[in-house]
Records
---
Amino acid sequence: MHRIFQTYIDRLSESTDVTALQESMVEATQALELSCFAYLCLPVRKGGAPQLISTYPSTWTAQYLKNRYERFDPVITQSLEDTEPFQWGLNLGTGILSRPQRELFEDAARFGIACGFTVPIHDGRGPIAAVTFAADEHCGAAFSRRIEAHRQALQLMAMYFHAWCMKTISRSGYFCRIRLR
């Protein structure tokens, strides 16, 4: 794990654009056997569009952003209310979900996003963000073991990613909605 984390930090520090930042996270998540990730930064102004860096399927992210699912996504709702990382998924007893929330989770699962581990980021300098490490499997024991084995490292990775995104975005003056793969 030490080598994966050190390589990740080195790659982040060498990044000069959003694509390089994303590639650093892609390498780390693949090394940890996690299928995909998403970084969602909520808008500063009400009604603004959230910013997204993700390896989720582009058809899903386009649907998510177009329909403004962040307004009722239970993962985002919990991220706004809590600063502690959490696991989620239909099979994890995520709590009582409204019909639209349940449908959102079911739609995500059809796109290969069945469960995840989300790190809310409340840094006090800007909008709230969240980094989710997701799996296309049904939140089985293998996913839970990977998350528990690397929980603290994943939290640090998310916080570093956010910090470097904010630095890169402010330097470049833009934020891309991109997807690699």
---
Amino acid sequence: MKLGIINSAFSQVGVPTATGLEHIARIGFDCVDIFTEAMTISAEEKRIIRSTCERKGLPIVSLPVVATGLIDFNEPVRDFHVERCKRFIDLAAEFEARNVVVVLGEYLWQREVIRAADQWRWAIETCRILGDYADGKNLDIALELEPFRMSLLNSVDAMASFVDECGHRRVRANIDISHCVLSDSGAESIARLKNKAVHVHISDCDGKVHGDLPPGRGMVKFTPYLEAIKELGIEGAISIELEYSPDPARIVEWVEEAYRETDRLMRLTGLRA
């Protein structure tokens, strides 16, 4: 598999887009995931991303989008988020990426007012619409597992069940290793995502709360998860997800550390030649 990173590691601390991408290429990453807003991105920003990635030989593999409104109880809100996600699919196609990672929302009001089954059904409906649209662009939708109590997809079991019920060849799973740990989804559960997963996120955490730390900074035991992912035979990328560096002035060192440790782990498990 390829080793990538979401470029938000740099953009969230104010590093210009081109500079961040240049660092990513120099450090040695095989590819990159682009964090942006498809509804408002300027033509100039798209030009900078494409030209820098082409110049540095850095393929774009994925675009993440948080689209909690896809399961909102108001139909116009769902419709808006479907159209917004379609813009991300368009942008991913323009960047020649392979997938769009979609983050669905959470059950409203602790499942006490809106029926949980209704929100699940709305998610199935909207994801099938997006799957059809992505198929026309030769792209996949990779759904994100979020480890929060009310998240619609908050475990490997929930993810596998959702992908099966959705029944769309373009609606697949993204595996986030630290999210699996936080949701008590052990490495053995990864086998449930055979022929369902197309992308992977990797980061560390303290085992209690969402962290997005460089591997080695927390308590995650990565080797069993990476070995299980290897068994899935995914032809994709493992992308490092780093958020909210404690020292923005040292973001380059933060990313370099994450690269070194992830590269070591991937080589140890035979995931990166």
---
Amino acid sequence: MTQATAVLADDEEAPRVQLVLALRQAWPELDIKAIAVNGADAWDAFLEHEPQVCFLDVRMPGLTGVEVARRIQGRAHVVFVTAHGDHALDAFDTGAVDYVLKPVDLPRLRHAVERVQARLHQAPTDLHRLLTQLAGQARKPPTLQSIQAAVGKEVRLIRLDDIVYFESDSRYTRVVYEGGDALIRTPLKELLTQIDPDRFWQIHRSVIVNERCIASAIRVDDGAMVLSLRGRGERLPVSRHFQNLFKAQ
């Protein structure tokens, strides 16, 4: 039997350590690929490791566990980690989702583990309705409206409406906008927590594109996909994780 893989995420150190230790008892064969301290790192770890199971704290700064789960949707089994008294519990008690309470209760964790193990060879549960309900309960800070970037000796204020795409560039993030490009120090995974995901689509681990600038998605012979942009010559790669964004209706 293939060893199951997992990613864990919790922004609080004590519960994070407690969950790891409890999982080693409840599921000693589980291969924990990454332990993230926030939602952005959890999403990045998911893209890197493609685990079968994700244990996600519901409330984390930046990307919440709910937002990470929405991005993962259908590609891994999700177990939420939440505190006693959290209003999310009312939604979880429908039985559609597995959850673990903090502080971790080993018998309850064993029960969640058994449920996940029984479903490992099935498609992950469709959590769309639940995640939509949970997302509506969480308040989010306003998204960015502009970005400050250095262009030569000038610090330029670039409106998000003018940005075509973001691209990871070694230690920097390249901002390509109508009229030029610039480098900023903000990592791509941090930008994901500050911009509107309905306007800016992540299409690759290293690329986020302004949806209104997309002209078409083109499949190539080896199953890969690239995007063409309105009025531009670039072709942006779309990784396998994000190809389902482009399906004919």
